[in-house]
Amino acid sequence: MEQADAVVYDRLAPEALLSYARSDAERIYVGKKPGDDQAMKQDEINRVLVELGRAGKTVVRLKGGDPYIFGRGGEEALELIEAGIPFEVVPGVTSGVAAPAYAGIPVTHRNVSTSVAFITGHEDPTKGRSDVDWKGIANGADTLVLYMGVGRLREISSELIAAGRGPETPVAVVRWGTLPEQRTVTGTLRDIADRVAEAKLKPPAITVVGSVVDLRDSGLGWYEKRPLFGRRVVVTRARAQAGELSAELEGLGAEVREFPTIEVRRPEDFGPLDGAIASLDSFDWLVFTSANGVEAFVDRLRHHGSDLRAIPRGAKVAAIGPATAEALERFGLRVDVVPREFRAEALIDAVADESLAGKRVLIPRAKVAREILPEKLREAGADVVVPPAYETVPSAEGKDRLVRDLESGRIDCVTFTASSTVDNFVTAFGPDESARLLSGTRVVCIGPITADTVRGHGLRVDAEASEYTIPGLVGAVVDLFAADPAREAR
């Protein structure tokens, strides 16, 4: 993906994989949806692949599942061979194995199923006949896995019963397997078509027939039990800092939409920071208010051929919270003070026992930030230097898509990790539009300062973290939905 000049991808290809493509890579969507006359036909897809190959481009043909199991990968490969274009195949995990596993159904299991058959439920309609030997298949394997058969489920069930498979044979239909939208309907060959129709389950889906389906009730359905399963959560952090929050939410089953409202950049003028670094041995305290500030400060030290060992031996170091402290400790610097509450006011209280009169304090931070910390330190008699180590600028990357998702009710929660993310969100959409877009979802903030900023814009806050950290924010999201389990995931 990182080497590709072009990525040709399907409807079922994991969207997250596209993020690995280069920013300048050509992205070509060739998804095919049942009943969609506008979808790209297979011969057109073949032609696109050949044309890209002949142009000398490195191409990734990205599919969901395995390309050689009902993925038409063989057809595309044969076209490339005929055109004299070299290729390689990277096997994937076929949905016929992955979807049941995520639904808590092993397709084989000792003493239950020693054989499995993969069958297409959607044959080439131009053939005019069926090549599926239902009589031979019905009892030819303990587990039957049917691809693309939801539209013909009633007919297929009747075929299997007529061929000798028991009407009470357990059946499960798994829609959008392995994704947060996953839904599973169970029944028997006798009633599964009615149950699926009642649940309004649509393609894409995998159907599993056999006694292994009953194992789902033994506690194997791990994925759908995650506390944020099926929830879509928006992360508004800068792209570079979103990873930790996104990973924790995804680990609990959420589908994350990253909407970076801010972008972290180098300051326009490094002069003030360079001056502070040049006189680093004159400071008695170094105060860091964010992990961004730590990384920017260390980067600038390295630019000057130095590192944190340049900090005077007797100087003390304070961090506004554990995440900032961890960032410092990763660089090998011991932190002297971390307040109990992770905000500027608490940091002031934490150093109150120290005499600050005549002390020099360095606070490398964002160009635009709350002034309460340096003001209070100056009131205590300190000489405070606040050079910009970085600056944040508004970003509206992915704005149109987020509007569509919010308007369609597909978003369960929007998270804010700092006042700047709130301000930039409102800047991106405008006050009235922000209120409209957020009226149908939940808003969760990392702490009271951020929550006050939200309310200051006339917006509602549904929950705020009691511990002003990323884990605290994740916990607030989990608690919010645990308190309202009746509210169905979107």
Automatic annotation (TrEMBL):
Q: Please name the NCBIfam families in this protein's record.
A: cobA_cysG_Cterm (TIGR01469), PRK06136.1 (NF004790)
Q: What is its EC number?
A: 2.1.1.107
Q: What class of enzyme is it?
A: transferase
Q: What name does this protein carry?
A: uroporphyrinogen-III C-methyltransferase
Q: Which domain of life is it from?
A: Bacteria
Domain Tetrapyrrole biosynthesis uroporphyrinogen III synthase: start-end pairs: 244-474
Q: Which UniProt keywords apply?
A: Methyltransferase, Porphyrin biosynthesis, S-adenosyl-L-methionine, Transferase
Q: Which residue range or ranges hold the Tetrapyrrole methylase domain?
A: 2-192
Q: Name one GO biological process term.
A: methylation
What is the similarity comment for this entry?
A: Belongs to the precorrin methyltransferase family.
Tell me one Pfam family matched here.
HEM4
Which InterPro entries does the UniProt entry name for this protein? Answer: 4pyrrol_Mease (IPR000878), 4pyrrol_Methylase_sf (IPR035996), 4pyrrol_syn_uPrphyn_synt_sf (IPR036108), 4pyrrol_synth_uPrphyn_synth (IPR003754), 4pyrrole_Mease_sub1 (IPR014777), 4pyrrole_Mease_sub2 (IPR014776), CobA/CysG_C (IPR006366), Siro_Cobalamin_biosynth (IPR050161)
As one GO molecular function, the record gives:
uroporphyrin-III C-methyltransferase activity
